[in-house]
Amino acid sequence: MEILMDTLFYDGKCPLCAKEITTLRKLQRGNLTFADIHAEENRNETLPDREALLRRLHLLTGDGDWVVGLPANVRAWSHTRLGFFFRPLLWPVIYPLAARIYGNWADKRYDRKYACGTCGI
C-alpha cells in the first residue's frame, strides 16, 4: 500500500509561518512535504495564483485535491501526534467562528506584508 504525500504551500518570507513550518517539520511523521511559495521551482501554471497562495494556507493532498485555509492547517497538523488538538476546529459548532477568525487573521497578515503597493508579490 502506497502512502500518499500531502504538500503544504507556505510563505517562506513570513517569520510566523516559517516558525510554524519549522515546528511541523520536526513533528510530522514523514508523509507531509513543504513548498515555499517564493521558491522558483514552485512557480508553475498548475498551482493556484500566487496571491491566492499567499492569502490563505494551501495544501495539495496526495490525491490531487486542494485544501485551503483553516482546513489546510488542520490537515497539516494531522500529520503530527498533536493533530487531535486541531480536529475540533472543524466541528460544525466551532468551525464557522474558527474559520472567520482565521480568515480575518490571514487577511490582516497579507495586507501588512503584501498589499502595500510597493512590495509587489
From TrEMBL:
Q: Which Pfam families does the protein's record reference? A: DCC1-like
Provide the GO MF annotations for this entry. Answer: protein-disulfide reductase activity
Q: Which domain of life is it from?
A: Bacteria
Question: What PANTHER family does the record point to?
Answer: OS04G0668800 PROTEIN, SI:CH73-390P7.2
Please identify the protein, giving its name as recorded: DUF393 domain-containing protein
- Organism, by scientific name, is Marinobacter vulgaris
